[in-house]
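hey so i finally got around to running the thing on that chain from the lab meeting. sorry it took forever, my laptop kept dying and i had to restart like 3 times. anyway pasting the input first so we r on the same page abt which one it is
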Amino acid sequence: MIVSWVIIWFISHKDLEEGLGKVSKILVPLLFIIMIVIVGFSLTLPGAMISLKELFAPDWSLLLDFDIWMAAFGQIIFSLSLGISIAFTYASYTGEKSDLITNTLSIAFANCAFENFCALGVFSILGYMSLESGTAVAYLVTQGTGLVFIAYPTVLNVLGQYAYVIGPLFFLTIYLAGLTIILSTIEPLAFGIQNKFTWSRKKTMTVLCIIGGAFSMMYATAYGGTLLGYVDTYINQIAILFGVLVECNLFA
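ok and heres what got predicted. didnt touch it at all, straight out
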């Protein structure tokens, strides 16, 4: 955890384009390539169609379930980083002639397309796990962390020699994707502090990384996994939704 925050500080204390900009240009394409390989192989697994049938034959009555809507809103808001000033902050760095509408539509479309593409792989793996274990798909995984640390390792285990390459690459990419999320989340805080208190970027990022690193140590304890589940649910299904509602009213 400490090493991660040192890496975050090293990237973030530089100018946006020199730090986060360069890193993202490498990590995002790498993530796409690795996921294409994993999804392609997952579709060939025995039992893949078990879950794919559930994916493409939804229970429409669940649209009346309030919890489903809360989870869906929380997921897409988190996925597009809405309500936490990330887009607002990045937009402040763009030129006057930037086409914000086209950029916004492109980002939303690319994000949703990639998520649906990855769903093919996730559900194929869950179908394989269901066939092997005799357990219904709905009971295999209950949290997103389970998909990353239970579902995907399952397909890696049947990749044979290829797993020694794809496995480390996959988890390295997941780790680096986490770093870019933190870098994006910390940017609005840094931007506001720099403008309010006229601090240098290096000083601002140093202070924020120390505070963030200290608080994140809670997740390195034995209770960390459970705590992460509570915090994740609260932030995605309550805090961000409330924040978006307040922002919409204020801006309007």
